[in-house]
Write a structure and sequence with these properties.
Strand order of the largest sheet: 4-5-3-6
Number of strands: 6
Largest sheet: 4 strands, antiparallel
CATH superfamily of the largest domain: bacterial protein sp0830 like
Shape: globular
Order of helices and strands: HEEHHHEHEEHEH
Distance between the termini: 24 Å
Number of domains: 2
CATH topology of the largest domain: Alpha-Beta Plaits
Strand content: 15-25%
Structural class: alpha+beta
CATH architecture of the largest domain: 2-Layer Sandwich
Number of helices: 7
Length: about 160
């Protein structure tokens, strides 16, 4: 994570911090052109690391909204074994959303809102057939999933 902080600082970002060892980087940027910024970061990371790194940017306000969004009933979330949020670069197409909904099972439920996919797993994740790879193969969209608790902690610490 120290290397990641250094790479972001070298890109000219300020107040660079990482949050837990999962690739979450918090930083201040002069640019507000999110798509361009995202592509610039991906290009710089690939040049520095030697491999492609998908990047999913959210402002502090967006992160806060994601953490407060209620895609499922509170009791369903409380009874579930896992509640995760998948971050996308763009909204899913109608075809991709339909492909995702075909992955619903008695164990897994999904909800799509803006550039996020909310995944509720009713049993142990090891009992689920759902995975990041299956999501990407089925929807043709890149994502990174984070536990909703992690997202809430990020939003509480950095969401303005």
């Amino acid at each position: 994570m120290e290397r990641l902080r250094t790479l972001f600082a070298d890109m000219g970002f300020t107040n660079v911090q990482t949050f837990i060892a999962s690739g979450n980087v918090i930083f201040d940027a002069k640019s507000v052109a999110t798509k361009k910024l995202q592509k610039d970061i991906e290009r710089q990371l690939e040049a520095s690391l030697g491999y492609s790194v998908a990047t999913f940017l959210r402002t502090a306000e967006e992160l806060r909204a994601v953490s407060l969004y209620e895609p499922f009933a509170a009791d369903a979330i409380a009874e579930s074994r896992a509640f995760c949020i998948g971050f996308l670069t763009e909204n899913l197409t109608p075809e991709s959303k339909s492909a995702l909904m075909l992955l619903k099972t008695d164990i897994d439920d999904f909800h799509v809102h803006d550039r996020e996919v909310y995944w509720l797993c009713h049993k142990k994740q090891s009992e689920s057939t759902f995975s990041n790879r299956l999501f990407e193969r089925s929807t043709k969209a890149l994502t990174t999933f984070r536990n909703a608790t992690t997202v809430a902690k990020l939003a509480a610490k950095y969401g303005r």
